[in-house]
Structure formats: C-alpha cells, structure tokens
Amino acid sequence: MYSRFHEENVNGLCLICNAPAATLSTVLGSGQDYICRRCGAYSVSTEFKWEIPTEGNPLFEELHKVSWAFRTASEGFQDLRELPMHQRSEILPMLNSPEPAVEEKLGILLQWIGKTSKGPGKSTTFYLEDDFTLICARDMDEAFFLIEALEKYGFLTSEQTFEASAVPCCLTAAGWAELSRRKEAGSNSNATFIAMSFAEARRFIKEPITSAVRAAGYEPVYMDLVEHANRIDDEIIAQLRRAKFLIADFTEQNNGVYFESGFMLGLGRPVLWICDQKDLANIHFDARQYNFIDYSNAVDLRKRLQSRIEAVVGRGTKNIQ
Questions:
Q1: Which of 35, 85, 108, 122 would you call most buried, defined as having the most Cβ atoms within 10 angstroms of its Cβ?
Q2: Which pLDDT tens digit goes with each residue over 162-197?
Q3: Rounded distance between C-alpha atoms, residue 105 and residue 201, angstroms
C-alpha cells in the first residue's frame, strides 16, 4: 500500500485509476499534483490531462501501464515536491508501450518482495487492491495469479489473512537465490549506458566520457549511436537491462536522464551522477543527496570519472583500444 497516501487528505479522484486521491494545483497553475494509493504521486500538465483516454477508447484498457510508470517512479522520490511534471507528449508512448511479459512481471514482484521484506526470513505484505500497479498487472486478480506462480515455483510462501486484499509474502531460500540471479543479469556485462542531453551544445562531453569509460575497461552505450529496428523507448529499456551501470549527466535537467537513472536504481545497479558545475544548483532536490562529479571542463570530467568508475564499479574486462 502506498505509504504516502493518507485518507484524511483526499479531496478528489486520481486522474488515471479514478480512485480517491489528494490533489493540488501546481504553483504556477500549469498542472496538477496527485497522490493516489494505487498510482503513487505524480505531477501532470493541463495538456497531459486532455490526452487521458476515456471508456470506449481502445487505449483506455492500457491505462494500467501509466499507473505502473507513475507508481514505480514515485517509489524512488524522497521529496515529492520535486516530482517532474509529465507533459502531453509522454502519454501516448506510455499507453503504447509493450506489455511486460509474465516472466518480467514475476521478476518485478520478486524484487519488490525482496526489497520490502528487510531480509531473509522476514515477511512483507502485498495489498492486492492497491499494489497490483507495482507490477503492471491489470487488476488484483492478475496480481494474485503472479503471487501464486512464484509460490508454485518455490520462490515464496504466502499466508491467508482476515483482510482479503492483504497477502503476507516471505521469500524462500530459492527465492533469494533467484533474486540474486536476476539482479546479476547485467553483472558480467561491460556495457555502460550513458544518459545525457543530446543537444548539440552538450556533445563535447562524449569524448571525455568515452575515454574514461574505455580506460576503466568498459564500453559506453549512447542511444543516438545504437542501430535498432525497435521503438526507441523499448530499445532504451532493453539497453538499460543489458548495462552493468549507468552514467547520468544531469546538465540541462533532461527528463529522460531522471527516468533512466530511476529505472537503473530500480534494477539495483550502480548509477554514477555527473553535472556541469554551472547547472548543479538546478538539480531536483531529492537527487542532490547523491555524490555528483561536478566537473568544470572536459579534462576534469575525464580524470574524475575514470577514478569514480574504478572506485564504485571496479575495473572492467574489456581491452582498451
């Protein structure tokens, strides 16, 4: 159950799932903030709201993907005042994104149980009525099916309670082993995903980043150089899953960089935070807690980034070209 939702603050309905929610207009009146038990906390522009499909529209059946995206993102924010505002152009990519495979949903559920249970032998409670959005399930029935599947695989045990929606879950030893296996899916990779603004004025940092990454024994992956026949958002997710770690340059406050960093953190993999000194003060409040490389020039970035990679991630195995 979403911990930041408080019943006493309800004054409206969630834009996505229509459940009771706390709503507040943004400071400049250009959008609205929501806190929903199912969809988490999110901020959307007025134009975004215009694009929400209504019943009868084929895309109405895809709204659970938006709930999943918002709930997952809000789980990673400490200060909800700094949630990025979602614009009109983002709604269709969310709705049209491919449905995660059952295997992927099982992995997401397994990871959530491991993260919230506070260690082996400890239980956590999955609230079917509200937490099905955490795993991109369409409803609580699908979420229960996935819990039962993990139980049949021997990865968890669950209990029945007087509250029908509440399902206490505890990972077995096999479940913890499977979780480790999934987390390490990218551990043997030398790929390093680079999240950054691709504006022409920022291209000069590619050279120092590339040099630092290769000197540390890894290979950088820039999405503007990846050849593929997939939708760009699908390919980004695929490349993130293949990468051992991510380097995120927050200069110019690109929304994609925030998303890709949050996604990588959700996979339990390292994120190295960098930003030009001139733009450091503009970083969202809840991201400032991380140890940024606040570089002043390309030479400074090259030297400090290689040291940070080797200190945090260790040396890679790719031969330096």
A1: 35
A2: 777 899 999 999 999 998 887 666 666 788 999 998
A3: 39
Q: Per-residue pLDDT tens for 68-120?
A: 878 877 776 667 666 767 778 778 867 876 677 788 789 889 989 998 998 99
User: Which two three-digit tokens encode residue 57?
Assistant: 């529209």
- Amino acid code (one letter) for 2: Y
Pairing state between β 20-25 and 12-13: antiparallel
User: What pTM value is reported for the model?
Assistant: 0.64
Amino acid at 217: G
Six-digit token string for 76: 């990673």
Strands ordered across the beta sheet of 40-45 = 12-13, 20-25, 31-36, 40-45, 85-86
Residues 305 and 246 sit within 8 Å (Cβ to Cβ): no
Q: What is the Cα–Cα distance from 5 to 21, expressed in whole angstroms?
A: 8
Residue whose structure tokens are 């996604």? 263
3-state SS of the chain? CCCCCCHHHCCEECCCCCCEEEEEECCCCCEEEEEECCCEEEEEEHHHHHCCCCCCCHHHHHHHHHHHHHHHHHHCCCCHHHCCEECHHHHHHHHHCCCCCHHHHHHHHHHHHHHHCCCCCCCEEEEHHHHHHHHCCCCHHHHHHHHHHHHHCCCEEECCCCCCCEEEEEECHHHHHHHHHHHHHHCCCCEEEEECCCCHHHHHHHHHHHHHHHHCCCEEECHHHCCCCCCHHHHHHHHHHHCCEEEEECCCCCHHHHHHHHHHHHCCCCEEEEEEHHHHHHCCHHHCCCCCEEECCHHHHHHHHHHHHHHHCCCCCCCCC
Q: Pseudo-torsion of CA 88, 90, 95, 97, nearest 10°? A: 160
Identity (one letter) of the amino acid at 180?
S
pLDDT at position 228, please?
A: 46
